[in-house]
Amino acid sequence: MQVTETLSEGLKHEFKISVPASDLDAKAGAKLVDLKDKVRLNGFRPGKVPVTHLKKVYGRSVMAETIDQTIRDTNTQLFSERGFKLATEPKITMPTEQAEVEELLSGKTDLTYTVAIEVVPAIALADFKTFQVEKPVADVSDSDVDEAIKRIADTNRGYAAKAEGEKAASGDRVTINFKGTINGEAFEGGTGEGIQVAIGSNTFIPGFEEQLIGIGANETRTLKVSFPKNYMSEKLAGQPAEFETTATLIEAPQDIAIDDEFAKTLGLESLDKLKEAARERLAAEFAGATRQRVKRALLDRLDEAHRFEAPPSLVDEEFNLMWNSVKAEMDSAGKTFADEDTTEDKAKEEYRKIADRRVRLGLVLSEIGEKNKITVTDDEVGRAVIERARQMPGREKEVWDFYRNNAQALAQLRAPIYEDKVVDFILELANVTEKKVSREDLYKDDEEKTAA
Question: Which end of the chain has fewer CB atoms < 10 Å from its terminal CB, N or C?
Answer without folding.
Answer: C
